[in-house]
Structure formats: C-alpha cells, structure tokens
Amino acid sequence: MIEFYLNGEAQRCASLAPETSVLELLRTVLQRTGTKEGCASGDCGACTVAIGMPDQTGGLRYHSTNACITPAHQLQGCHLVTVEGLARGDALHPVQAAMVDCHASQCGFCTPGIVMSLFTLHEGRREGRRDALAPLDDARLEATLGGNLCRCTGYRPIRDAARRLDRYPDVRPLWADDAALADNVTALNAELESDGYAMPRTLAALHEVRRQRPRARLVAGATDLWLETTQRLEAFEDVIDISRVAELQAIDETPDGWWIGASVAYTRLEPLLETAYPAFARMLQRLGSAQIRNRGTLGGNIANASPIGDTPPVLLALGARLALEGPDGARELPLEAFFLDYKRTALAPGEFIRAIFLPRPAGDQRLEVWKLSKRREDDISAVLGAFAWQEQAGRLHGVRLAFGGMAATPRRAEAAEAALEGQPPDAAAFDAARQALARDFQPLDDVRGSAAYRQLAAANLLERLRLTLTHHSPREVCLDAYAH
Amino acid sequence: MRTLTDLSRPVPRPEPATQADDTPTSPRQAPPHDSATLHVTGRARYLDDQPAPANALHVAVGLSRVAHGRLTRLGLDAVRRAPGVVDVITVVDIPGHTDVGPVFPGDPLLADAEVRYAGQPLFAVAATDFTSARRAVALAEIEIDALPARLDPVAAAEAEEWVRPPHVQQRGDWQRALDDAPHRLEAHQFVGGQEHFYLEGQACLALPNEDDGVTVHTSSQHPSEVQKLVAEVLAIPFHAVTVEVRRMGGGFGGKETQAAPWACLAALLARRTGRAVRLRLPRGDDMRATGKRHPFHNRYRLGFDDAGVLQGGDITVIGDCGHSPDLSEAIVDRAMFHADNAYSLGQARVTGIPARTHMPSNTAFRGFGGPQGMMIVERAMDDIARHLGEDPLTIRKRNLYRPEHDVTHYGQRVEQIGLLHELVSQLEASSDYWARRSAIRAYNASSPVLKKGLALTPVKFGISFTAKHLNQAGALLHVYTDGSVMINHGGTEMGQGLHTKVGQVVARELGLENAAVRISATRTDKVPNTSPTAASSGADLNGMAARNAAMQIRERLFDFAAEHYRLDREAMCLENGELVTGHGEGERRIAWGDLVQAAYLGRVSLSATGFYATPLIHYDRASGQGRPFYYYAYGAAVSEVVVDTLSGEHRVSRVDILHDVGDSLNPAIDLGQIEGGFIQGMGWLTSEELKWDDTGRLTSDGPATYKIPTIGDTPPDFRVALLEGHPNSQASLYRSKAVGEPPFMLAISVWSALRDALASLADYRLSPALDTPATPERVLFAAQALRQATATETSHA
After folding, report:
1. Closest partner residue to A38 among B134, B199, B671, by Cβ?
2. Is B575 considered catalytic here?
3. Which CATH superfamily is domain A94-172 in?
4. How close B737 gets to chain A, by Cα (Å)?
C-alpha cells in the first residue's frame, strides 16, 4: 500500500509490483494519460512530472523527474503533480498560457513534459520569496530543459515562452489553495509497508532489512536500475530503497572535506561543488538531465561501476575515499581500489556504500574536468578527463589524471601522470605525457566513439591542459568555456 | 439560437502584460495550433491515450536478431503457454495478402522462410497486458541459418543488387562539357541516414465490428493505405475497414508507409479474438524494426570555368534502400531531382541507384531524398571555391539558376529566378555576411584551437508528389443548422498545423471566425481514397479541396439568398459572420446563422464534397524529362559555427534564415516549420548517428545512444524571416507555398560552415572531406587530416 497525493487529491494504491513505475501507475492504474511515454528509459522527458517533498520549512519542494524510471513506491508521502493538475479550472497556468501564446507546441506529445519541467523551474523561482519570482537565468533554463526532447519546434518558441512567464498573472493551481496540503502529505511520510519493497529510514533499519532480505536489490535514484525493468522486462521480487535513509542523505563537513551520503542526489551537491570545485559543478550540469540529477546519486554512480560514469573520474582525480558498511562491519577504501574490472567492484556480499569523502581542495590545487560527447546536453561521455594538479616554482606536483571511457573502469593514467610529475608544464613534458597515455589505455570501439577517436581526443585533452597552463584563457582553447 | 461566439468555448487565459517584443518572429500574429490548449493541459489524446474496452488485448512483436538467413524453426509453444497470452500469430495465420509493400511488393507482414534484416517481425503475441505480451515474446525459440548479410550499399550497387532499376536524367553532352572544361574536380561523400524519432512511437488500436469489419485507430500519415492493406491482409472489402487518425505525436515521413504493418497485425488479432487490440512499439523495437532516412553515397565529376561556373559533368547518387522497395524509387528520384539544388549544372547527367541491403526498408523522411541529393552539389560548390581561392558564397552566387541557364537536368524550367537572386542578396546583406567573413578570418588567424566558420547555402525544393496520381485531395464540409461548420479532409495532423490552416481556409471562404469551423479526426469513411500527408503537400492539396467545398456551399447560399430575400446576387459576399450585399442605403446584412437556418428550411443541401487535382505536372521516366513540380519553394540560410579543433566539438552560434512561403497562410505556423525543420536538419548533419554492428544490428537503438538536438543546440542567435512580397507565381492556395520540407535543407549551411572552419587550418586552400553526421569524432579526424596535409605540404616546400 502506498499513500500519496496526486494533484491535491489523496491516493492509496495497493498491490503494486515492486517494479511498477510512476508512469505505469499513472497511465495504466489511475488512467491519467496526460503524461506520455516517449522512451521508457529516462532519456526524452515526455513523461516528466513534478514531485513535491516536504522540506525543512514545512512546505513542499518540487523537483522534476522522469516518471518512466521513478519507482511508484517512491511516491509514498509525496505530492505528485502532473500536467492535468496545473490549470485552475479553465484558467491556464502561466507556463501553459505562455506555451500557447508562443506557438511552442506542434505535435504536442513532448509538451506535457516540457510544461512540467517549466513548472518546476517556475516553482523553484518562488522559493524563499514572498512577492516576486527570482529572475530567470538562461543557463538555468537550458539546464532545466536539456532533458526534454522536442522533435518539432527547434525549441526557440519554448525558450521564448519561458522568458515571458513573468508577464502573466501568477495563476496557481487549485491545490495550491489548500493550506493543509503540505501537512497532509508530510503526515504520510511514515514507514512504507509493502510486500517486496522496503524503504528503511535509518541506517540501523537498513542493516536489519538487508540481514532479513539479503537478495533484495538496492535502489536509490533508480535512474539506471529501473531500465532493467522497462527495457529488459525484469520483475524485481524484492527491493530495498535507500533513498530515505537519513544517514545516507547527510552531508557532513569535516576540517579535511565532506562526507557525502551515498543517496544524496546530484542536485543537492550543486551548492557545495560550486564553491569547492567549480569545474566539477560545471560538468555536473552536463550529467544526464535535470530530471536525472534530481534523482540520481553519487553513490549510485560509483556502485554502478560503469566505465563511462561521469563522476568517478573526477572523484579519482580528487582522491576521494569511500565508507563501506556491511554485515561484517565498516571500512574505508580509496576510490581507486573500488573498481576492479568492468562493472566489478570491491563490495563484499551484503556490503554497501555509506558515504563518499570528498577532500577539501588544497590551497593551490587546480582542477579541470572536460567531458566529450556527441551532444552537449544529456549525453553519455565518449571520453571524460579530470585533471588535478598543483604548480609550485614552475613545476607540476600532485598530478592526478583520471579518465572515463578509456578502459573497463574509470581509471587514472599513471604513466601520463609520471611523465608530468615534477616537470615544468612545457611541450616536452606534455609530449611525453601524451605518448605515455597510449601505454595507459587501449580503449574500445563502441556506439559513442571509435578507439582511435578516444585515444586521440584523450591525448588532445592533455594538449588543452598544456595550453591552459601556458597563459591561454580557457575561452581561447576550450569550446565549452568559449560558448558558456 | 446560439450565436457564433458560443460555438467554440475558448479556455480563458491570462493576457501577457505587454506585447512590446512583437517582432516579426514573435507570436500572437496568427491563429495558434487548434489543439494548443489541449496539448498544454494534457487533454490532447494520442493513440495510446484512447480508452479501449476493459478486455482489450495488448500486442508485442517478435523481431529477428539476424540480418539475413533462413528461418528454420519458430518454436512458440512456451510463448503460447505464457501467463496472459491469448493469441499468437505467424505468417501462416494471415488469411489474405502476406505482403504489405505499399507500391511494389517486397514487405512481408511476418517473415516466411527468409529473414531479410535484423529487426524484421517474425510473429506477434496478444496478451491481457503489455508486459505479459513482451515477456512472452522473449520465450520464443528462434532458429535462423545465417546467410551472408549485404550491409554495404556501394558493393550492392556494383553487384547490381537493386530494389528498383537505376534511373538516369541527362541534358546535353555531359562528357564533352566535362572534357572541355578548364577545370575539373571529383569527389565522393557519405551522407548518413536519420531516425525519425517521432516522440510518439508507432501505435494503433483495432476494434472488431459486428459485421466482420474492423475499425482501426492509427498514428499514420496515410489512413487510406492502412485501410487498403488491412482489408487485403484480412481478405475483406475496403468498405469493411474504417481507419481514423485524430493526431500523431510526430510523423516526419516515418508514418507514411511504415505505420501500416502494425495496424494490419492489430486488425488481424482483433478479428481472430473478437476483442479490441492495442499495439504500440516500445522505442527500441520501433527503432530496430522501421526504416529511416536513406543513407546515400554520392559522387561528382564536374567541370567549371575560371570563374567557377559549372560547365557540366556527372553525378551519381546511391541510396541505401534496405531490403525492399517501399518508397525508395521515388526517394532516389527526388535525390536526383535535387542534385542541382539551386544551381545550373550545365550539360549534366545524374544517375540514381536504389541499392538493396539487409537493412530495415528505408523510407520517407522530411525532404524525401532531396536533402541527400543537394549535399553533393553543395560539396562541389565549396570544393570549387577552395580550388580557385574564392569565397564559397561568390561561387554559389555565380552558379545560381539565371536567365539562359534556367532549365534543370530533367527539363523543367525554373520559375521565379528573380526571387531566388533577391532572396540570396537580401540575406547576404541582412546577415552582414562579408563583414563577418572578415572578422572570422581575423579571429581564426590568431586563435590557436577554436576556429570559426561561416556559410550561406540556398534551397530550391520542388513541390508536388512525383507520383502524379497522388496529387489529388478531397474534403467534406457540413454546415449545421446552428451555423457551426465541420470540415473533414484527407490530410492528417502530425503537429504541422494542417488542420489549423485548412480551418482558416474554410473560415475565410465563408466569412466566419476561425472558431466557427471545426475539424475532427481524419476518417476513411468521410473522405475516401486519399493521398498520404506528405511531400509538403498537405495544405496545398487539402486546403484547395476544402476551399472547393466551401465555395460550393457559398454559391448555393448565394443562389438561395438571391431568391429567398430577393437580393442582388452579383454583389454578395460573406464577411464577419454575415452575408452582405448592396451598397450605401441599399446595403443588406443577414447574419450567417439566420441565413443557414433559412436555407435549411428552404431545403438547400448544406453539405458538400470538395476536390482538387494539381494541374500542369508530368514526368516521363523513360526519357527522364518533364515538369514534375508545380512550383519550387526557395530559401537560404547563413550559419556561423565555432569548432574546437582539439576535440572536434562544435557549436552553432548564429543562424540567419530568409525563407519563401509565397503569401503565408499562417506566419506563426510557417515560422514553426522553418525553425523546426532547420534544427531537425542540423541534427541529421551533426549529432544524429545511426550505428550498426558488423552483423547488421542497430546499436544506436534508443535516445541514450541516438542524439537528436536539445534546447542547448538551438543557436543562441536565431533570426528567421519570411520573404515578403513574392506571392507564388502559380495559382496555389491563396498564392502560398508549401513549407513542411524545404526548410530542412537550410541546415546544409551548418555543415558547410563546419567545412569552412576546418578549411582555415589549411589557409582555405584545401577543401576538407567531411562525411555526415559531422560528429565531434568526424570533425576531429577531418581537422587532423588537414593539419597533416598542411604539414606534408610545408615539409615538401
């Protein structure tokens, strides 16, 4: 039995299979067909809905998500808002009115998802303000809509609609009048009781349920795991959801850095990274889409152990450590000791990632993160390079060069690092590093790039690094810095 | 009686506070899409949103994983026993035709003995829910003796493996012109295919009727063909099948022929089980099973004079058609018809070869081969410019069709040459081409890694189906006694705003507000024997048919009013919801509602069918000469790009477009088509890469691996304008022009600008090969090749 609110109305749904998605629940069980299925893999955004979760102020904070890969059980104690829930009777919500006035729908199939992404953007601008909305920032707009594919319009009218929102009276949905809604939703935020789907709230409860159900699959953001059901038709007999374990949701600051709970979503990391590691924060804007970043977690990205995950190379370059816990107790591990082989990790049976330690930047430490993909937004890396170093007295020290997409796991380029360590950042040192890279990696051909491209592009990222170290501004030598 | 303003109850919406930015490209100057409010509220119903009876079945289709082979065993016992399964069909269960080829045979509905591509349907399963059907499919035991798969269309062409015979268009003595030319160049190029990626996948719902017939709701651009094929598969008369299309969530050509097989499967299962049957393809199955835009291998050998003006030569285009003809003959023809784009080729021969491979049967996609054909001559324009050290725009302008050089290689005289030249000149000026050219040269000279590129490319696109008989349309118009009007026509709505435009036509003819006219779903029992909504012809053909119907009603009402009210018929007109006649004191006005009511009581028929057939067109395949197009639509675009020559990444920073739609029927909708077409074309040429493994299986089979443009790819500076003051020279619908496909090809300017940026690496002396899509990988290797060529040159100097 899950209990939640849908567009202001209480809902109780019983006997849902663990693998049921929010989209399946909406379209098949509740017959709400306004939310569309475009891909069932979290890549097109047609199924975007908004989920309101209780925040510390006693209100509801809305984020966008892809309904197709969001577990229905995660709605427990939430307010789900869909495209059917925005208009106030006959009066359109400003997002809807602007979309109509700007001719921003053609076939209309992606439109509900776009409306919902813009709705969360609009609500986000309201937070913490009483009278006026925060100004719309174009970069934020693109980050919000990067995961909503439209095949008809070319996006210009959608961009225009977003920019015009402030000219409309702030018509709010009828459910916004219900002062008790947030309290009612919060009141449902208790232990979930459901066969085959456990949602523990504490680390102790997580240990207990894992002991009882050792074969259950762990899920947090579900942004990858749920593809096993939508694409490969797996039935999950038993799921343990760690997205609400308080300890795994914490970010603890220490003098040396930050312990980031394994189920902290990317979006929550943004403020921290923008201060500590702006290059990491910029890359994060290109990880998946807003919908994915709202749900996906650092712990999931690591535990998944994909060779093309975006954060592991950065964390490797920064010397991150992991705190693991399992039936035999807790231990710490440097991240590089975690990845053993393709999709194989050092996790012992029953063990899980509790937190990731992100070291505080040393005073003169620098970081660059460069992601290469066919498309700028919402694409998976062909190659990702993350480079950390210090420069003292004209020489490079503490050089850590980590790559994704170049081997069976995210890995450091140790030979290339050795070629640069202690050297001045000159052409000779970097020539040696580029040649060493060919010893470090023998990448593969796949759908995202050929081995030859990966090898050349990775070497060229080192050349880009050399140029940035030798008095070229990033705007001169890196397209992303030039254009954004 | 209700007044007309009550007829359509628009949802009240807040008005924006100001309209200060109502520039030419701003909204609010034309009626919005007639479903816009439904789209944004989630009320617009697509196929899979339609309610079906509770006992409806759901279908999943079993697909081949082998590209070519002999099907030796199809073990379906476990499938039949799987939970929820109600029926399973293979080819032997088809009572009528087993081949659903739309024009020529060659498309088995379900595979028989031979498997011809990876993704080919082998069997279909109907179950009580979608997941059960899909899980059951996975239980099949399929044994296929693999045979060598032919995956290379060039090798297929050499082996004379064709889906249709090659075709030649020729004008003058091309060999002599080539031999005599002061300069000659030759090159080949690969132009990649494109997945339609309509957001709504293939889908249909079949409902058995009481009388052995079937009603099929489908997401199809061609309901009449679905009707025909369903009837033939079921072996029942066409009149026993009714097909309805309310709207599609995108089509782009992908639902012209390739929606029909799924409707046939659903209809057959509905007949067999007596239950409603839903079929929708999961995205991966959709991408594996259906055809795409044809990849092309093109070659040119062209001769030109010292000024870069083409004298003549030879062009060959090889289309990768996949395993069956589908529409490939017409598609390769259209590539040939556009191998000149807007340029006089001189004495030229153009050859088209429709190659057969073990791939999905490639099909219609916006532009229908035209874009692929244009790519070869645009490559030549750049190459000639580099060869002679001229700016590519200079070479392009010199080669535009012009007086004395105004006949195409297929014998059609090019009209509106003045428009073409004026359009290019206007855009050259408004985009500030030459000043930006200088600035870019200066930037590139000092920028070590980032290089900018600029290109202006024109478009001339022929409008008409090249299959002459398709250039006809019908409409059915009813006026009800409250004065409200219902129009049906043969065209389908896929987001292009066709219904909005046709509704405007009827409202205009009857002097009514747009809201007084309603268009409902396209149905084969309302307007029969229709053509596909394709070839950009939707509004041209169906708008004219609707206009024809409205004019009949108007004439009947005038006849009636002249007699009934004793009015002067000559001076009558319909405007602002009234019949008006006479002048000054003699003026009489009769409200539309009153007129209609009176006519009904006077026993006047208030229903009419309209018809239209395009005049003047003809084409003789034997000689490769004729006038296949009623008219041409023109446009031009200037694109500026920035290329990162270390990574191959690139960005389009500014685009200026000037496009010819004649007298626009709806400027907002036309702008939407131009912008959307441009971005779709840009995706085709840059990020959208179809990848296949060595065995012929598609590896880019979902949006995670196949990348269509996102909002961040839309140029930050995007200036789009409609060419003013040039009505269509032909008597088209209110002198408008078709707009669906032509703007797609404006995106060739992006590809040419990428080549321009790359050429800067060799001081604009070499013309880089750049196959498409120009992914970062291809751009990086092109940059690498140019750097190496320049280094070699220097070392030899």
Report:
1. B199
2. no
3. [2Fe-2S]-binding domain (1.10.150.120)
4. 19
